[in-house]
Write a structure and sequence with these properties.
Elements (H helix, E strand, L loop, with lengths): L16 E9 L2 E15 L3 H5 L8 H15 L4 H15 L3 E10 L2 E6 L2 E9 L4 E9 L5 E13 L24 E11 L7 H17 L11 H15 L3 E7 L2 E6 L17 E9 L2 E5 L7
Antiparallel strand pairs: 1-2, 2-3, 3-6, 4-5, 6-7, 7-8, 8-9, 9-12, 10-11
Helix pairs in contact: 4-5
The chain binds uric acid.
């Protein structure tokens, strides 16, 4: 390669390897459906610079690896499966410098009929997506991040937005009681992967989203802003899950504006707290990453 150039990024793999794994324990079956991306970075660049393929682990072989490891080891969680794949690629091929694996899960849920869980029938339940990414360098610890993605929620009260900057650009009135709707996305990084129950962490994060967005079923929880709700969720997540090092939460503010019906005499009241205009775009884009301080004891 010309001495004026250097690699900024390099790697190759198979994207969107679709797999359904069925675990059969007598009549009770359990399924996992995933889309897996693999990416390997080699310690040589001769494949790119010289057309020398002798070190290439074909993307087709990477795809086969996904199926073979699933068959031989089973699948418990996307995190465990990604870790299995990344460590396999590094231990099997000594010329692989970095392995990266992404998993997107398909949200199947066991069907429950009259309170009884079905043995082998499932419902596609796309309320919330579970994703994860593992990046592992040779000789290094795997860096694992999990995503809780696309969870659309709405509440009709216990949300306000007042006392923000008032200047010549402001048209929004103070809102003491408004609709709050968002699509929650949370990504969190683990500070360790050994002995972690990833399924339990996932369920805990889901419960915290309910706790901090919705609150108790009868009275809810007050939100003075999307920013504050994001922080309360992040703080609670770091508090109750020591295995998490940082958490990014994004909550686009999907606005619902009260329709102005004040000019219509046939509408008895000038107050309208029933009819709203859903406004998906533009949406407020509110996000933050909260991490632990270096040397933090918590
Ligand atoms: O919770 C909110 N935060 C904002 O920053 C903002 N900006 C806005 O127009 N509405 C809202 N709501």
């Amino acid at each position: 390669m010309d001495e004026n150039y250097e690699w900024v990024e390099r790697g190759y793999g198979k994207n969107s390897v679709k797999i359904l794994h069925v675990r059969r324990e007598g009549p009770v079956h359990t399924i996992k459906e995933y889309e897996v991306n693999t990416q390997l970075t080699l310690n040589t660049d001769k494949d790119y610079t010289h057309g020398d393929n002798s070190d290439i682990i074909a993307t087709d072989s990477q795809k086969n690896t996904v199926y073979i490891l699933a068959k031989n080891h089973g699948i418990t969680s996307p995190e465990d499966f990604s870790l299995l794949l990344s460590s396999h690629f590094l231990s099997k091929y000594s010329h692989v410098d970095r392995a990266k694996v992404d998993v997107e899960t398909y949200p199947w849920r066991r069907i429950v009929m009259e309170g009884k869980a079905h043995n082998h029938a499932f419902l596609f339940s796309p309320e919330v997506q579970h994703t994860c990414t593992v990046t592992q360098y040779r000789g290094g610890k795997p860096l694992l991040s999990t995503g809780l993605v696309g969870m659309r929620v709405l509440k009709t009260t216990q949300s306000a937005f007042v006392n923000f900057v008032s200047d010549e650009f402001r048209s929004l009135p103070d809102m003491e009681d408004r609709i709050f709707s968002t699509v929650v996305t949370a990504y969190w990084e683990y500070n360790r992967v050994d002995g972690v129950d990833f399924g339990k962490v996932w369920m805990t994060m889901l419960k915290l989203v309910y706790d901090k967005f919705a609150g108790p079923p009868d009275i809810g929880i007050f939100s003075p802003s999307v920013q504050n709700t994001i922080f309360l969720l992040q703080e609670a997540a770091l508090k109750v899950m020591p295995e998490i090092s940082k958490v990014q939460v994004t909550m686009p503010n999907k606005h619902y504006y009260s329709v102005d019906l004040s000019k219509f005499p046939e509408v008895g009241s000038s107050v309208n707290n029933e009819v709203f205009l859903p406004t998906d775009k533009p949406a407020g884009n509110i996000t933050a990453v909260l991490g632990r301080k270096v040397n933090s004891k918590l």
